[in-house]
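Help needed: design a sequence for this.
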C-alpha cells in the first residue's frame, strides 16, 4: 500500500503543487512519514530558505539605495523617500522577527548587496558612482533604526 501512495504524491507535485502540499501536510499530521515525498519536500524547503534570503537581500538593497539617495542627492526633497525607508525597514524587521537566526547575517547581506545598491543609486540619481562611498557607510543599527536618516 505504501508503494502506491508515494508515486501518487510525486505525480501530484508535477501536476498540482497545491494538491501536493495538501497531501504532504496530511501525511505529516497523520505521522505517515514513510509515505512522504522526501525528495521534493527537501527541495521545497531548501527553496523556501533561498527565497527568504533573496527577499532579505532585495529589501536591504532597496533600503540602502534610498539611504544613499537621501544622503547624496541633496537637490531632491528627502521626504520623497521616507515612505520607502519606513516600508523596507518594517518588512526587514518582520522577516527577522519570524527568523531571528538571520539577524547575525544582516551585516553580511548588507555588505553583499551594497555594490548593487550603490550602482542603482547612481543610476536613479544621475550622480557619478564615485559620489557614493566604496564601502557600506551604515551600521546594522542604523539600517534598522526607524529614526535614522543620513
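Sure. Designed sequence:
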Amino acid at each position: 500500500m505504501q508503494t502506491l501512495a508515494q508515486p501518487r504524491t510525486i505525480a501530484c507535485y508535477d501536476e498540482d503543487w497545491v494538491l501536493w502540499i495538501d497531501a504532504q501536510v496530511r501525511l505529516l499530521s497523520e505521522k505517515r512519514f514513510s509515505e512522504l515525498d522526501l525528495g521534493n519536500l527537501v527541495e521545497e524547503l531548501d527553496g523556501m530558505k533561498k527565497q527568504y534570503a533573496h527577499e532579505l537581500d532585495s529589501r536591504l538593497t532597496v533600503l540602502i539605495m534610498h539611504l544613499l539617495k537621501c544622503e547624496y542627492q541633496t537637490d531632491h526633497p528627502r521626504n520623497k523617500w521616507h515612505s520607502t525607508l519606513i516600508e523596507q525597514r518594517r518588512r526587514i524587521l518582520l522577516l527577522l522577527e519570524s527568523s531571528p537566526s538571520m539577524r547575525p547575517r544582516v551585516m553580511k547581506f548588507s555588505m553583499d548587496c551594497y555594490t548593487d545598491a550603490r550602482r542603482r543609486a547612481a543610476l536613479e540619481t544621475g550622480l557619478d558612482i564615485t559620489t557614493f562611498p566604496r564601502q557600506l557607510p551604515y551600521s546594522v543599527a542604523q539600517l534598522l533604526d526607524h529614526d535614522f536618516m543620513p
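The two ends are 64 Å apart (CA to CA).
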